[in-house]
Design a protein that fits this description.
The protein is built from six helices and 15 strands. A six-stranded mixed sheet has the order 3-4-2-1-15-13. A six-stranded mixed sheet has the order 5-6-7-8-12-9. It has a three-stranded antiparallel sheet with strand order 11-10-14, with no helix packed on it. The longest helix is centred in the middle third of the chain and has 21 residues. α4 runs parallel beside α5. 26% of the residues lie in helices and 26% in strands.
């Protein structure tokens, strides 16, 4: 089974935009379609709650024929058109779809950050983890989120094995970013966020990239758009993950980044795993 996850940074802008960045993004979408994954998880879709515009749906249906599309959106009291997640999955699959709230602080539970697909033997779930924010203004709430989300995945894992994807907004280890020393107190690489991710893994989950590739360095999933040379110089971070329940780690066949060419920001990540769904 092939699964792809990608923080797309505004679905409507990618599909309808006329900028060079939008053109590069559409090439990435075509690359994903050529892989023919059973499931595609998208984060930071920034959709209104009535979903993609008609033209966007037409493009998605043309590019991913015979896929079902479900989405979660940001609603009041959160900002509209913020965050958000989407699954596209082949229509021969018949999951139960849920949009969990985990008891997170502030408006986090209203920002459309989680969707879960339930199958007979497993859950495939995705998350767009809240960023700690500029000046770490949201770090305390982020720490609570991390505990609540770990509780949520652990509870799923008690009944069926779990495959969890998404933008977790944390580089777990020093080898997961190009410049750890200068980013020690940056959002996504604070001790608190790293400890939160360690706690999540300790609940019974495997970082599939590290499972397959060990301590390889220089492989990242995100490069800042604010620094024009970040991707050219490979000054990146690995903050996007496929996690699986420890007991099915040996079923993982491949876990890697998908080449997104010169496009900066997130690159999609691929998981190939032997799942019976």
């Amino acid at each position: 089974m092939k699964l792809v996850s990608w923080n797309i940074d505004s679905l409507n802008a990618v599909i309808t935009g006329v900028s060079t960045r939008a053109e590069l993004s559409r090439k990435v979408i075509k690359t994903i379609a050529e892989i023919e994954p059973e499931v595609v998880a998208l984060q930071e879709t920034k959709l209104p709650c009535d979903g993609p515009a008609k033209i966007v749906l037409e493009v998605l249906n043309d590019t991913f024929p015979e896929y079902e599309i479900v989405w979660n959106c940001s609603v009041e009291p959160a900002r509209k058109g913020y965050a958000g997640t989407m699954f596209m999955y082949k229509n021969n699959l018949k999951p139960i779809v849920s949009y969990p709230k985990i008891g997170a602080p502030g408006t986090m539970d209203f920002e459309g950050r989680i969707i879960t697909l339930e199958f007979d033997d497993c859950y495939i779930t995705q998350v767009y983890t809240p960023n700690a924010g500029e000046s770490l203004s949201r770090l305390k709430d982020r720490q609570i989120w991390d505990v609540k989300y770990a509780d949520y995945l652990e509870n799923l894992d008690k009944s069926k094995y779990v495959v969890a994807a998404g933008d977790f907004n944390v580089a777990h280890r020093e080898i997961d970013l190009a410049h750890p020393a200068s980013n020690r107190n940056s959002a996504g690489f604070t001790d608190e966020e790293r400890e939160g991710f360690t706690n999540l893994l300790k609940r019974g989950f495997t970082d599939t990239f590290r499972y397959i590739h060990g301590d390889v360095t220089g492989v990242y999933s995100w490069w800042s758009q604010l620094i024009k040379t970040s991707k050219i110089n490979n000054s990146g971070w690995r903050i996007d993950y496929w996690l699986v329940s420890n007991r099915i780690a040996d079923r993982v066949l491949k876990s890697e980044m998908i080449d997104s060419g010169p496009r900066q920001d997130h690159t999609p990540i691929l998981l190939e795993i032997d799942l019976q769904v």
